[in-house]
Amino acid sequence: MDTSQLRTILWLRWRLTRNQWRRSGQLNAVIMMLIAAAAFVIGAAGAIVGLLIGALLMKNTTPWALLGIWDAIVIAFLFFWMIGIISEIQRSETIDISKLLHLPVSLREIFFVNYIASHFTLCFIVFVPSMLGLALGLAISKSGLMLLMPFLVAGFIFMISAWTYCLRGWLVTLMANKRRRRAIIAGVTFTFILLSQLPNLLGNILHDHKRHGPGATQSAPSEQTETPNSGGQVVPRVIVEAHKYVPFLWVGNGARALAEGSVWPAILGSAGMFILGALGLSRAYRSTVRFYLGQTTRKRSTPRAKEAKVSRAQISFLEKQLPGIPDESAAMALAFFRSLMRAPEVKMMLGTNFMMLLFFGFMILMRRRAGISDDFRPFIATGAVVLTFFGLTRLMLNQFGHDREGFRALVLSPVLRKHILLGKNLALLPITVCLGAILLLLIKFVIGVTVAVTFAAFLQLIAAFLLLSMAGNLISTLVPYRVAPGSMKPTKIPAMTALLLFLSHMLFPVAMGPIFLPAIAGLLFAKAGLMSAGAVNLLFSIVMLATTAFFYRLSLPGLGNLLQRHEKRILEVVTREIE
Amino acid sequence: MNLAIETNGLTRCFGDLVAVDNLDLRVEAGKFYGFLGPNGAGKSTTIKMLTGLLGPTRGTMRILGEQIDRPEKAREVKRRIGVVPEEMALFDNLTAREYLIFIGRMYGLPLATVRERTDELLEMMTLADEHKKLTLEFSHGMNKKLTLAAALIPNPDLLFLDEPFEGVDAVSSSILRDTLKQCVQRGATVFLTSHVLEIVERLCTDVGIITKGKLVYQGTMDEIRQAGSLEERFLKAVGKDHVERQSLSWLEG
Known about the structure:
The complex is a heterodimer.
Chain A: H1 3-23, H2 26-57, H3 63-91, H4 107-117, H5 122-141, H6 149-174, H7 178-212, E1 226-228, E2 234-236, H8 237-245, H9 250-259, H10 264-292, H11 304-318, H12 327-342, H13 344-368, H14 377-388, H15 393-396, H16 407-412, H17 417-447, H18 451-478, H19 495-506, H20 508-511, H21 517-527, H22 533-575
Antiparallel strand pairs in A: 1-2
Chain B: E1 3-14, E2 17-23, E3 26-28, E4 32-36, H1 43-50, E5 58-63, E6 66-67, H2 71-78, E7 81-84, H3 96-106, H4 111-124, H5 140-152, E8 158-162, H6 170-185, E9 189-193, H7 197-203, E10 206-211, E11 214-220, H8 221-227, H9 230-238
Parallel strand pairs in B: 4-9, 4-10, 7-8, 8-9
Antiparallel strand pairs in B: 1-2, 1-3, 1-5, 5-6, 10-11
Helix pairs in contact in B: 3-4
């Protein structure tokens, strides 16, 4: 490959990025350009500031404080790097090697150019100059030994970029299958969310453990778990050990050792990271070659009879008839439900919300259950009903956005539009009932609400579902937006639509206000000594459910007509490809 | 004359661009009508308007004798038509069989009929072995075949096919051609657009040519054959400027 080809490929990468920004609108393009320019400025300024801080302010910094500073920088870098990976996976517009292979360049050359081009990310541009600046500054202020720091930083950057490249290459080979692709995107995002919440979760658990655990009263450092450092401070042994064995902590460990006058941890750390990086890069290259030789996917041989059995079982689900429901609505409900349950992004969204509710909601409830008064318990049950819908509003308020091309089949169908709406609503009912029922049962057993209150809350759940379905039918028709395949992200939406959506999501808790009426009535009746709170709550819930069911039924024909009038515009919006 | 499709002054604008301009189309029932035109002539926009996927800016349409601007009439007509749109109408997360069952039920067909037709159509389109694949994993050709199967499942009186053979393999294409001929033989009307003149020449009884949104020719294949070939008629209708070739300087000499 000559320099002209190298320049052309780098130009191509820049044009792809620029066009991607432009396709999201002029304003977005300007913002992204400004961000890119700002990143370069911040990178350059970071190098200078890092140099000055290292040279002027860190002369007297202790070795362990130095370790902490470098650890913080490395962890911040890794955090932004992870965000970068996720957004790149979702957009996935890098230079596709297969699009260049017919040109007079070899696979190896394109591989290395692509690898070099992968360094041009915001995270690298902002962090690397600052890290190098700080490393040089330390060399000025501390000692000549600190000149080894840039090698540690370079080794770290090489190791991360090589393994990132390897990871991306592996994901690309996995994502060659479209179905698997969406599952991977969802899985990576889900893992990231869980990882980012992990410190919070661990913090809560440790806090709880310290308060209630057997060693709550012991505060003296243990000889076996903590070790004094050269400055007389106590450092847990696990931290010392972690810095020996976790590669990305070798930067901080090397800095500490250099400050203490020992060069070996820095030399070994640099060498180790360069070796690990080389291994990652070589693995990435091997998997690229395997991918282009078609040696990546191994088909599992499943017995044919078993496949046919599975298929038949799935078909019988779509052929089911729902009692009292028009056949077209039943077909719609079953097909849409199946479609949703197969979409990894939907499973991810529902799973994430559910996990969050379980983790944090119950952690709080477990801690404070003793202090909850009997009067307040029904409100917690109703609150759980409202929380059930937090993860569902994006589906309920945008019922056609996930159909994309499929919405065309609905426009072409000879079905009454009210039946389409009914089918769409019914598809979400099992999800709502399952999530809500699990939460209510947990509430019942964790804080001990009565059976009557639990049952009342279940009725409120159905009433809230009907209320939100009416709102969802209206908003989905008037403010539709397209959702990108494999994610819950809307594709470019007009400012007015974005505003209306923002308002509708913000007003969701207010719209859920009436759901609390039975609990309030129960409290008032009980305080007046007229009837027990649970019985009143249940009675009012029955009345509320009957009323919302009546209004839901009443609303369907009108909303169906509205859908009929707006369906061509909805079709235009949900099928427009802007990615 | 019993008309399956009749339009008067049908016009569709996209901003300043007039995609379809005062189209007066007459398609007799029971005919195999080929709708031809160069890229961007307005063929797909016309089909979209005729099938209710796009509203016209001006003009009126009658499909199977019914004015389709009223919702209830439009629904009645939709029950009697099958459509293969330019862009597919598939749900990503359903298998081919599930999609056909869904479409059959949406047309109000009895479940036994839906099952029977689904099986036959999947066999015919050679999709029966792909029962575990979701439509998002299908190739373009497979998606096209599935859309065709969905258009045929209600046994429609009128079929709108926008480039139905694009990406379809030779075997399926041959079977499909026979099926469409059968549809016409039993009295259905087929309205087809295609870039492949040979297909139109072989299948169609009537032809309309559209260019720059205007209908520039409408006649029977017999009339065309008497005056020459369909290609000559097409080139004449769309204008000589479409076929003028520019010479490449470095290929000369």
